[in-house]
Amino acid sequence: MVSLPDDPVLRLAVYAAMALGGLTLVVMLQVLVLSELAARRERHREAFVARWRPRLVGWTLAEEAPLGEPPRRGRDVLWFLLLWARLHRQLRGVARERLNTLFFSLDMTGAVLAMLDSRRVHRRLVALACLGHLASDRFWSDVAPLLEARNPLVALAAAQALVAMDARRAMARLVPLVARRRDLAMPRLQALCRQAGPDAVTPPLLEGLAAPDPAHRERLAALLGSADPARMAAWARRCLDEHHEGESLLCAALACLGTLGDPRDHARLSKALHGDSPRIRFAALKALRRQARPADEALLIPHLEDRDWWVRQAAADSLVGLPGITRERLGTLLEACDDRYGRDALRRAMAEGEFP
């Protein structure tokens, strides 16, 4: 039998080594157990999908297809809902309606609503995705409170479900929320606005742009591309005439009038070409290009020598796109341009246009 050393320091070192060895064995055992559990769970999931996917596909082809006993265990319910939602995204028309009929025939409503109250974020997201696919406003009162969820992913998923249920009603709640919450991803919000459509987005957006808080209005600028330009035109003209808004809103107003293409706005767009901000000059060039006239050549030529790269490129594109302009005229402008970066921009625009 090996005895411990008499030296206290050496004895402590031996104890530490024994403890470290024991801890290593415990960690290894834990890794092995968790790996085995994960493998068993994955095998069970694959078997579940192999059993249920053909049934769901068969149901989308004919509602009389046999289904068997619906899943009742918590894990199986989650897998079923994930499979149902994934299949729902891949289908259109009658097949989607049959999947919705299947959802109610299996009485999955209670399980989904219970998942909305779960503390686990992924379960709440799955439930919201399912309710969004159902697109039934009977669940409005269950989903609407989650718009105020602290987790931005949950709030955005709730917004998407509400838009699917009732776009107008959802936008009336979502647009004011956009101005208050900075943690909501703007690309997702813009996608939701496009999904809802101009008729649903425009009224609450006009109401939000009348708010007294400049930061509130500035936050809404990114959503203006989804609104109806004809109904936003009065606001856009007032915004450009009074010139009291920030850059983002001025650029959005220019884009709105450019999309509308009303010749009466030509003078406003031309005036914006002389703005101090390169963003505004760039937006004005893009807007003016939609209603360009041959006489606009004199407005565009100075911007070939603009300090901003984007403005130079936009000016070159606008010159090449002028009605009636010829290759010879563009060649003359190219020779007359004193700025080498402006010449490069014009050459690039000519090569990409019809004047190689």
UniProtKB/TrEMBL annotation:
The chain crosses the membrane at residues 12-35. Coiled coil: none annotated. The keyword Ligase does not apply. Pfam families: HEAT_2. Keywords: Membrane, Transmembrane, Transmembrane helix. It comes from the Bacteria. This is HEAT repeat-containing protein. It comes from Halomonas shengliensis.
